[in-house]
Amino acid sequence: SYVLTQPPSVSVAPGQTARITCGGNDIGSKSVHWYQQKPGQAPVLVVYDDSDRPSGIPERFSGSNSGNTATLTISRVEAGDEADFYCQVWDSSSDSYVVFGGGTKLTVL
Amino acid sequence: QVQLQESGPGLVKPSETLSLTCTVSGGSISRYYWSWMRQPPGKGLEWIGYVYSSGDTNYNPSLKSRLTISIDTSKNQFSLKLRSVTAADTAVYYCARTTVNTLRFDPWGQGTLVTVSS
Fold first, then answer.
1. Cα separations (Å) of B9 from A52, B13, B53?
2. Cis before residue B107, ω within 30 degrees of 0?
3. Distance from the B104 Cα atom to the nearest Cα atom in chain A, whole angstroms
4. For residue range B57-104, what is the model confidence (pLDDT) as tens digits?
5. Residue A40 contacts by C-beta under 8 Å, 6 or more apart in sequence?
6. How many CA atoms lie within 13 A of B37 on its CB side?
7. Model pLDDT for residues A25-68, shown as the tens digit of each residue
8. Which residue, among A4, A35, A98, would best test binding to B if mutated, counting the most B CBs under 10 Å from its CB?
9. What phi and psi, each to the nearest 5 degrees, are found at residue B3?
10. Which residue from B44, B59, B108 is facing A102, i.e. has the nearest CB?
């Protein structure tokens, strides 16, 4: 089965740039989606198809995907960005199913 | 805009069947997949499966033997049944609209906690 690997935690000071990685075998050939989940709330899609943003998501959120690593970048980090972030792909190569990364806790110092 | 709302019992006994319904409002249930996910307390997200408006389904292989997802287009609802539950099935269960091409989830319901306990 396909595995997505995320760092458990990332810490950044306000105003700085946070980068959250998602590793997977040849992930660059797949479409990667990213979700933000604040405590007690449902996940919210913040980046889809590697680098597109849904309406209403600030331009500070961006994504990239190449080789074996996809990256979610949050520029000019704010205290309100503190949350868990999950990457997700659809693995159509085997049993054709959806895979989530283990999640990364973003802490704003 | 489209909104989703989960409903069902918050407590299920071990070995029994967990049943949840997701009601879709503000849009048609056609031309999308509709998915269920779950999140055990303090843990990450797990995809359970999806159903299309035609009734076609795709399930997580690890749950497939215990799972049925169905859809009622006349009521704009889709449902989850998970049989023979154990404590390991205790989780917040979410429903979400799912795009057909790259299977992204947007939007999600608020989630409902289901506890498996006697």
1. 37, 11, 25
2. yes
3. 7
4. 999 999 999 999 999 999 999 999 999 999 999 999 999 999 988 899
5. none
6. 27
7. 999 999 999 999 999 999 999 999 999 999 999 999 999 999 99
8. A98
9. -130, 150
10. B44
